[in-house]
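Justification of computing resources. Each target in the renewal requires a structure prediction run like the one illustrated here; the chain below, 157 residues long, is used simply to show the kind of job we budget for.
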Amino acid sequence: MNMRISFYLNGLPTESDCLPDRRVIDLLREDLGLTGSKEGCGTGECGACTVLVDGEPKLACLMLAAQLEGRQVETVEALQQTDEGRTLMTAFAEEGAVQCGYCIPGMEMASLALLRKGEPLSRDQIREGLSGNLCRCTGYVKIVDAVERAVKESCKI
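Resulting structure tokens:
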């Protein structure tokens, strides 16, 4: 039986009628048309589906729609709406941290959570913050470089 779920999606009030056990990744991609978040593994191993829920990185393939009730959800589609998001996107592009792009939405959302801590981060802290996100193309050096750059630049914003 469907239920009505009310939450904020990228800052806007959103309601959806869906089965309570519908996965968040399916709700976002199929029902709401937000295809930026990717399903890589479907088992919580790769991080490609990372979204922010109440500011914390969460795996959309492991969350159920009913868990969104009353919460704030941010997807990669909202990155360009904030200074910190634009800084992050620019750093990823200019540091060469993007190749195939499949993992990047999840990487950027996990990185956004790191940026919002508002403090300088060591490369080890960045690696730890991104540890649930896998990339098979770039390796991680350029991704860590991009996040490190964005953290430094965001401290100036």
